[in-house]
Amino acid sequence: MKLGKITAAIASAAVLAATLSATSPASAVQTLVVWADKGTIDTIKSKVLAWDTANADYTVTLVQKDFSTVRDALKVAVPKGQGPDILAGAAHDWVGNLVKANVLLPIDAQLPANFKDDFVPGALQAMKYNGHYYGVPGWTENIAFLRNVKKAPKAVTSINQVKNGEIGINYSATTSDPYHFYPFQTMFNAPIFTQDADGDWTNTVGMGGTKGAAFAKWLKTKGTAFFGKPADAKILCNFINGKIKYWVTGAWNINAIESGASGCAKGLTLGSGYAIDPFPKGPTGITPKQFLGIRGYLMVASGPGNTTNVAGATLLMRYMSSTAVQTSLFNTANKTPANAASLNAAKSDPVIRGFADAANTVPMPNSPAMDAAWVIWGKAQTRIIQGKEAKPDVAWTNMTKALQTAINKVK
Length: 411
What we know:
Strand content: 15-25%
Order of helices and strands: EHEHEHEHEEEEEHEEHHEHEEHHEHHEHH
Number of helices: 14
Distance between the termini: 47 Å
Shape: globular
Number of strands: 16
Structural class: alpha/beta
C-alpha cells in the first residue's frame, strides 16, 4: 500500500534500523532513504512529498543529519549497509573525499548524453571526479562585489580604484578565507590547480611560480590596511552604515543587509541602497574568477541493507534537478537554480540576477585533499595579509609545496 507521505526521521542508528527493518524486501512499495541536514530538509521536503505522492512504487524516508558531521557518519554507515540511497544537500567539493572513502556510486549510466546542457556551466562538472559523475546539482552559490550605493554611486572597474579602508572581507586571523580571497588571487592568473583540456581540475597545484609570487607580494603590500582586520564582527553594520564601501560576500547575507541589525541604521534596498557588482579587474587588467559552490544530490554506494535502490534514486534525483522543481525551490526557498532554464526564470528576482550577472566562476575543486588544502593555503595567506612574512613570495612557494605534498598523499 502506498504511504503517500514522507517519514521525517531523527538521525540516529536506532531510528534508521527500525525504519529499515519495517521495510520487507517483498513489499510492492520500495523505500528510498535520503539523508540531509535540517536546512536542506526544510528546502526540499515539499517537493519530495509531491514526488512521493505521485509515485506509487516508492515511499521516501528523510533522515536528518548534521551538515558538519554527515560525511563521517556516511563513512561509518555504508560498510554496515546502513547508509541512505541519496545524500541530499551535499556540497560538491565533498565528492572527491567521499569517492576516496568508497561511499558513492557513479551515475554515468543513468545520465543521458546531453544532460549537462540542462545546467549552468560547471554545475554538473562539479559533480564529476576522476572521469565519473556521482550526483546531480541542486542549487548554486557564488560571491560578488557588493557596493554601498550612497558611498560609491558607480561600480569600480579596476581594483586599483579601491582605497585602503573601503573594502571588507570577514576572514579568520589564523586560516584566512581562501574562498573569499580567490577572486583577488585569480587577478594574478594563479588558480589553485591546473585544469585539463576538458576543464576538469587536475591534482597539480597551479598557484605557484611567478604568478603566485606576484599575488603574495601584492597581498602583503595591501595588508590589513586594505582588507581590514580579521574576524570583524562589525562588518555588516559597517557596510550598511557606509563605513566601508564594498563587501565581498554572497546571497546568504542579503536578508541581513536588507533587514538591518542591532546597532545599524535600517537595512539597505537593492538599487537605491546597495548594488551587486562583478569583481573589478586586477592591477594589470586580468578579469578575476570566483568559486562556484554547488549543493546537490549524491548516489550512495551502499544503501539500506547493502543495496542502493539505483532505479528509484535516479528517478528522484532527476526530478529534483528538473526545471520545474528548481524553479519551485527558488520561489519558496530563494535557492539559486543550477538548472539553466530555471535560472533564466529566476532572474526576474533582482538579487538572483545580480549574483548571476556578477558570476565569472569555476567550480570549487573536489579533491579529497581539499580539507587540508583550505588550512594550508589559508594559514599562509593570513600571515601574509597581517604582515607576518618578511618574504611573502618565499612563504607562498613553501605553502604550494606543502599543498602539493598533501595532494600527492591522497590522490
